[in-house]
Specification:
By secondary structure, the chain is α+β, with helices and mostly antiparallel strands. Helices cover 29% and strands 30% of the residues. Strands 10, 11, 12, 13, 14, 15, 16, 18 and 19 form a nine-stranded antiparallel sheet that branches. The protein has a five-stranded parallel sheet with strand order 3-2-1-4-5, sandwiched between helices. The protein has a four-stranded antiparallel sheet with strand order 6-9-7-8, sandwiched between helices. The mean pLDDT is 96. Bound molecules: adenosine-5'-diphosphate and magnesium ion. Magnesium ion binds next to loops.
């Protein structure tokens, strides 16, 4: 094929208008693409940047069709989409990546686990639990973790049950249960695979979670693990995406146990919170990489140019309404600090409102700065709760 592209290089239809979409739209513009965003919220974070938005639900068949018909290629930044409609649109010849059938497997966490197990990817032992069942839990054995099959994110579909006494806190939804893993660390690897099957991993990162609310506290890039462990994690992540024949960028979350074993926790068929630092710290960021992958362009270099850390900016407890950013100038005065504000019209306690990436000579130095950043910058709101 001749290496000649029209402008726009591609019209990209993006399902979901959140922060991941917003950062993808920016990358798309850089590559000479245009974007249309489908999101129920007029003026969504991604819609603002794209300039074109279809206001509608992610699962509205008519709106999904309108999106597909107004674009050259469709992709998504979230998982909870009606895959039936996407599969039908794909059968009519619309290009949709990652493939809707794969999204259907991944968005149902139980089906995802079955896939991983059947593909020989190490993952924690699990059994189906179509409805909450104390006897099934007892027979499986505590400690265990209950996970909702559909719709969970940021720990919202996950309940850790140390013993039978905690069963009462179960989620009243179709779910499965799995072994509680005593993890030494939680690692993540972003992997890109393009339509031609070319596959590249980013350096392994480490996720440190907040004890209480399960939201990512600090992201360490690269992970503080032996080089051999990082290489194994990257190889496992590549193997996982290749088993899925995935096209696009994927986030592979893993547990590292005390004896050095790696277990895949879950796979996100999209750009991921643990890849935000790639914007400043890597040659090619995860958002551009995703577009290269789905457009059949050569993948970019994943090499990391500088150690980095990333912290999410969450809506401060006690506030809602229009966001008020306190301490912005103070953190911008610190060298190596890069602030991202997502453009959400309203804040809520714990809502992801932005993130800060810090680059420095070492991850430790970056983390020390990030700790200061966390005490300085706060997302308040114009209404007190
Ligand atoms: N089997 C497990 N053993 C121990 N901790 C777990 C297990 N599964 C999940 N967790 C904890 O819960 C967090 C959220 O679970 P995860 O399956 O990744 O759901 P989410 O989609 O909300 O990210 C994980 O990052 C981890 O800290
Ligand atoms: Mg997770």
């Amino acid at each position: 094929m001749e290496d000649v592209y029209p402008y726009p290089v591609a019209r990209i239809g993006l399902i979901g208008g959140g922060q991941l979409g917003r950062m993808m739209v920016k990358a798309a513009k850089r590559l000479g693409c245009t974007c249309v965003v489908l999101d129920p919220l007029q003026g969504s974070p991604a819609g603002q940047v794209a300039g074109h938005q279809i206001v509608g639900d992610y699962s509205d068949p008519g709106k999904l069709r309108e999106l597909a018909e107004s674009c050259d290629i469709v992709t998504f930044e979230l998982e909870d989409i009606d895959t039936g409609t996407l599969i039908a649109l794909e059968a009519e010849g619309h290009r949709i990546y990652p493939r809707p059938a794969l999204l259907a497997t991944i968005q149902d966490k139980y089906r995802q686990k079955v896939f991983l197990r059947d593909a020989g990817i190490p993952t924690s032992e699990f059994i189906d639990m179509p409805e909450p069942d104390a006897r099934a839990c007892a027979a499986f054995g505590y400690p265990l973790v209950q996970k909702a099959r559909r719709g969970g994110y940021d720990g919202r579909g996950v309940v850790v049950m140390p013993d039978a006494g905690t069963f009462s806190g179960h989620l009243p939804v179709p779910s499965y249960i799995e072994r509680f893993i005593e993890a030494e660390k939680e690692l993540a690897v972003m992997v890109a695979r393009n339509v031609g099957g070319e596959c590249r991993a980013y350096p392994t990162v480490e996720m440190r979670f907040h004890e209480r609310d399960n939201v990512l506290d600090f992201l360490l890039a690269p992970a503080n693990v032996p080089a051999e462990t990082a290489r194994r994690a990257e190889a496992l992540a590549v193997r996982t995406v290749e088993a899925m024949q995935g096209v696009g960028v994927f986030g592979i979350e893993m547990f590292l146990t005390a004896d050095g074993e790696l277990l895949v926790n879950e796979v996100a068929p999209r750009t991921h919170n643990s890849g935000h630092h790639t914007i400043e710290a890597c040659v090619t960021d995860q958002f551009e990489q995703h577009l290269r992958a789905i457009l059949g362009l050569p993948l970019g270099e994943t090499r990391q140019l500088s150690p980095a850390t990333m912290v999410n900016l969450l809506g401060e407890p006690g506030y809602e309404g229009r966001p008020v950013i306190a301490g912005l100038a103070a953190v911008l005065a610190i060298s190596g600090v890069c602030v991202h504000v997502y453009g959400k019209a309203v804040t809520k306690p714990g809502r992801k409102m932005g993130h800060v990436t810090v680059i420095d000579e070492t991850v430790e130095a970056a983390c020390a700065k990030a700790s200061r950043v966390k005490t300085l910058i706060r997302i308040l709101g114009d209404k007190k709760l």
